Structure formats: structure tokens, C-alpha cells
Amino acid sequence: MEKEIKCHLCGGKALLKMEELSLNDGKIILKDSPYYQCQKCKEEFATSEQMQALSDQLHQKFYFQRPIINAGRSLAITLPSDLVHYYKLKKGEKITIIPEGRKELRIRLAD
After folding, report:
1. Residues 83 and 99 in one domain
2. Angle at CA of residue 16, ends 15 and 17, nearest 5°
3. Do 12 and 50 share a domain, yes or no?
4. 41/87 same-domain check
5. Are 87 and 95 in contact (CB under 8 A)?
6. Containing domain of residue 85, as a range?
7. How far is the C-alpha of 103 from the C-alpha of 101, rounded, in Å?
8. How many domains, the chain?
């Protein structure tokens, strides 16, 4: 990663900075997130490569792997308590499961 690039706004010199990034009201904290700050206009920005790396980091760190279990004559998946609390889920609420492909499902909370 380059330590210095040209500012996309004013053409000035932008220096690489590292900072703790707080997302979702401080519920997610990423340490040493890179960005650039222009020395001339003080604009702060990230490159597309930095944004892709941030996206990859979020997907690597924030996922839940759960076993499929038996529940009577059906199969079931349990939800981690952190997700239950975060989304304020209650027993009996409905969800929608949407097939996205042979190896991917999307879960959507009912309105």
C-alpha cells in the first residue's frame, strides 16, 4: 500500500493513515483501518482497494457457522444469542428463507 498518493479532490498530497474504525454504533470495531488524508484540503478518503480489503475483513470476521440439528421430524438451525439480541428476535416471529443458489440461502426478517 502506498504511503502517499495524489488527492482526488484537489490534487494535493494525501498521506496514508491508520485508525480504529467503529461501525454500527460501536458494536463492530476494526483496528488499523487504512485511509488517506490530504495535507492540502484535509479530505479523508479510502481507495477502492482499501474498501475491498475492508469488505473482505468484515466477511472473514463476522460470520456464524451453525450445525443443522433435528427438531422433531424437521431439520433446524439455531441462531446465536448475539444475533437474537441485536435483531430483537422473539419466539414465534416469522422469517423468509430465499434460495440464492445451490450453496447459498438468504434469510430475511418478516416485516
Report:
1. yes
2. 115
3. yes
4. no
5. no
6. 68-109
7. 5
8. 2
- Range name among 17-26, 33-42, 67-76 with the lowest pLDDT average: 17-26
Residue 9 and residue 46 share a domain? yes
Specify the DSSP element, H or E, that contains 96.
strand 95-101
Q: Which three cell numbers stand for residue 108?
A: 430475511
How many CB atoms sit inside 10 A of residue 60's CB? 8
Q: What is the pTM of this model?
A: 0.57
Same domain, 56 and 72: no
Take residue 44 and report the three cell numbers written for it.
479523508
- Whole-Å CA distances, 86 to 5, 64, 83, 93: 39, 14, 5, 15
pLDDT tens per residue, range 56-79 = 888 777 778 899 999 999 999 999
Closest among 35, 31, 32 to 15, alpha carbons compared: 35
Residues near 27 by beta carbon (within 8 Å), at least 6 away in sequence: 86
CATH of the domain at 29: 3.10.20
Strand partners, 85: none
Between vectors from CA 43 to CA 41 and to CA 45, what angle results, nearest 5°? 150
